[in-house]
Amino acid sequence: MARPQSAVSNPVRVRFVEFELDEANASLLRDGKPLALAPTPFALLCALARQPGTLLTKDALLDEVWGHQFVSESVLKTAVSDLRMALGDDPRQPRLIETVPRRGYRFIANPSAFAPRSPPPAQAQGPAQDASFFIGRADALARLERAWQAAADGQRRLVWVAGEPGIGKTTLIDRFASGLGDIACARGQCVEHYGTGEPYLPVLEALADLCRRDSALPALLRAVAPTWLLQLPWLSSAEEREALRRELAGVGPERMLREMGELLDRYAERRPLLLVIEDLHWSDRSTIHLLDYLARRRGGARIMWLASFRLAEVVAGDHPLNRVRHELRLQRLCEEIVLDPFSETEIADYVAGQAQGFAADEGFVHALHERTDGVPLFVASVLVDVIARAAQGGGALPGDALAKLPVPENLAGIIDHFLARLDVEERAMLATAAVCGSEFRAETVAQALERDAGWVAEACERLARGHMWVTAPRRGGEDVAPEPPYAFRHAFFREILYERTPATARAQVHRKVGAALEAERARGRALPAAELAMHFDRGRDPAAALRYYAQAAEAALMQLSPVECMELTGRALLLLDQATDVAERDSLDITLSTLRGVAAFQAHGVGSEAKDALRRAYLLLDRVPQHPARGQLLHGLGFLLSIRGEYAEALEVTQRAVALSATTQDPVLLLTACTVEGEVHMMQGRPRRARAAIERALPALDAADTVPDLGFVAAPQVMLLAQLAVQLLHLGMPRQARALLRQAHARAQQLRQPMAQMVVLWFDALLEVRLGNGESVARLADELQALVEEFGLGQGRAAAGFFRGWAQARRGEALDGYRVIREAYERNTASGMRAGGSEVLGYAAEALLLAGEADAAEGQLREALRFVETHGERVYLAQLLLTQAAIARARGQAAAAEASVRSALQEARAQEAPWHELVALVALCEHGEAKPAERKALAALLEALPEAAETPPAARARALLA
Questions:
Q1: Which terminus of the chain, N or C, has fewer Cβ atoms within 10 Å?
Q2: CA separation (Å) from 915 to 367, 809, 872, 918?
Q3: Average pLDDT over residues 195-216
Q4: Where would I find the OmpR/PhoB-type domain in this sequence (predicted)?
Q5: End-to-end Cα separation, the chain, in angstroms
Q6: Sheet hosting strand 19-22, strand order edge to edge
């Protein structure tokens, strides 16, 4: 909406503090550099600055900035908050904008008029070296600038900068970013690891960098991206982190993707964001997955993700990035800039910028191009040496200097040549640094070398000043702890130094670096366990490597990265045979296999991969009965087996847990046993035994001060209450069942745990199915589907389909309901989740019968009864037999129908399930098949089940008896 004419005709142009505001040119500078500010906060600033020292009421500001149409005061408050954040103005101690409580705002800075800045003179240039850095890259820079402009206009952009080592990717990115002024820029660096490394490592680095420079970001993280906040522990207290872990238990990796998408979009509403991630050829899979997700995210956003990678390594190494870049290019969701080597003309320009006298010799330029293939790194390295030699020789001819220099055909040879010019101590220091990684700290190198840290730091500074080997860390104005790292100027320098170290010596250095990092970690330095695992692995210390692989795998699981957890445990399990201490090896095997099983369940479902890993750990438990992961292992394996429909094996695991709990007095083990035992007895049609097991678990839950995240299901109390509710219904106590479900819902809401909410909705729907409440089942199915989609809870997706199809069939969409049920059933069984299969097949048969398809319904029913026979799953058998009777009646087979109903009655009594008995007796009476004794039994049952009085079966029974 246009602002009032008075504001437009009187544009403000003032200087205040370190800012210069020019409304006519839509310009705001801080210390002479552009400051990004959204249009609304900019208009608000102009309105305030136009009347300094004057109280502007809220209504006056709403009139001037928004026209006061359809806008509330909360919008003004938000705009003032955004403006203060951009200007760095503290509302508690304002220096620019003062709040007058309940009235409005006042501009309190002392403004002064100023003349517009004159453009810099044409001859004003930076140092020759700065200009030379950008020889031959004008087109690439222009493409980046166009992409940034589009991003700033709200069109999200993903741009790759690709090329070989030394081609100038980082130089291009640095030049581009430095020309954008004071923008929101977050940078992350991928580092080479063994295997997958730390999930989301470069993104977390960039996020941490942005948090340090923008104090508002942590609050935004808390609001929209709690899974990411959990990965940045220094931003919250221990209590807050523990609460977050409980809240996020069971959340899938998809949640992290959606949260990051929302976080970046929200952040970019205030100011455009440039996210830079370098060396994606070393990236973990999670980062690639996130990049793919953000590129495909719909809707505009003022975000540009700029990434670099080595093209050859991505293509030749079958890197997951290669597939992603091809797909995104085909869909025009990214732009790729491939940097080529310098041409001979560009090398001439480069030489002219470094040493004007050499550029006049065409032979020298040609020879330099031939020897270096135009790779900027090669060119710079050779030219530096030639200039130095010329200076030492008193003006030797450039051609002669180049001819005498033994330049090999590839960079490795050039690096070797320059390595030879270092003294022994510098070379040893750099070789040790190369083992540390592309970045290294002087303290770490000093400990590995057993040298004084001051000497190492001095050597690093000397090398950094030479602009050849390393770059000095970017230090802020305040002391930084720990000391920021140095970095190799080019990754290939580090690689050649690493490869030139003999294997035996390299392994020894890895061990020393690992020990140094271990000591730093003990002193509080945040170091990923995966990094230590890599050093001890390459250092041929399998025992230490295994310990850290276990820690890294556990961290990956907590970071909702099960695929990374599986890769880390896979590598670690290959090392187990090298561990010499048998007891320690068995303990680590249990830990690693348990983590692998949990990760496989989260990543791929309950297939053989998860079962085999957990079974491996289970078979070792006799050797290490006191293992700290025993509760997680036994719960995980028992629950997995029950989900797979392998009930006998699941009960075996619960008996093991009970025996261990008796000897260890561990309430968590008893809780584990009772939870799984209750599930199995429920599925096998033993409601009284299921109830007894669950009620035995509740005191165990109270006795356990803290119940660890068992990795599979919801909070134990929620799970137990929901399970018990269904058993009480089967035992004829629907009122108590509903009360327990209300408790479970309240507890799940209190915990704010999506998995717990999913479990309660699931069991609530089971209850309503048995009560025949179609509308309630439909509502619960919709809630379950919404929860599954919001939090990526793959385990509940099929269940939402079961219940939605059941409800559809009862509101006149029987065939559509059948298709939904059957599709969900197939998806579930394909993943290995067979528990409840007989009940779901019963839903399918009922839907077909409602559609008038008796023959097809019989086929589904036969499949359900075979499932009962195969798995011993009797929880829904009585209802299946009643469905069989309904099919027989549809065909006019009265005798067969009566026999099926009597079989259902017999099954209900065998299960000692009064609810099923009530339903079966009502069916007998409705068709005039009940004997006097059975009518008498129905009357006695009604009197014995007062809680069932208000249910539909009880109402029908009273009518029949009357």
A1: C
A2: 94, 23, 20, 5
A3: 81
A4: 9-109
A5: 74
A6: 33-34, 27-30, 19-22, 13-16, 112-113
> Pick from 605, 578, 551, 613: which is nearest to 833 by CA?
605
Token pair 């009797």: residue? 874
Topology (CATH level 3) of domain 138-338: Rossmann fold (3.40.50)
Q: What is the rounded CA–CA span in Å between residue 507 and residue 226?
A: 40
Three-state DSSP at 12 gives: coil
C-alpha count within 13 angstroms, C-beta hemisphere, residue 599: 27
User: Which residue's entry shows tokens 């909360």?
Assistant: 74
Residue 531's identity, in one-letter code, is: E
pTM of this prediction?
A: 0.68
Q: How far is CA 21 from CA 1, 62, 116, 450, in A?
A: 22, 21, 10, 56
In this prediction, residue 122 has a pLDDT band, given cuts at 50, 70 and 90, of very low
Strand ranges for 745-899 from DSSP E: none
Backbone φ, ψ for residue 102 (5° rounding)? 65, 5
Per-residue burial over 930-957, b if 16 or more Cβ lie within 10 Å, else e, is beeebbebbeebbeebebbeebebbebb
- Coil, strand or helix: which one is 251? coil
Residue 2 pLDDT exceeds 50 = no
The per-residue pLDDT for range 811-870, each reduced to its tens digit, is 999 999 999 999 999 988 888 889 999 999 999 999 999 999 999 999 999 999 999 999
The string of DSSP codes covering 206-228 is HHHHHHHH-TTHHHHHHHH-HHH
pLDDT in tens, 785-814: 998 888 777 778 889 999 999 999 999 999
Q: By CB neighbour count within 10 A (0-12 exposed, 13-18 middle, 19+ buried), where does 709 fall?
A: middle
Contact between 249 and 709 (Cβ < 8 Å): yes
Please choose, from the candidates 755, 687, 754, 759, the residue with its C-alpha nearest in 3D space to the C-alpha of residue 724.
687
The architecture that CATH gives domain 5-113 is Orthogonal Bundle (1.10)
DSSP 645: T
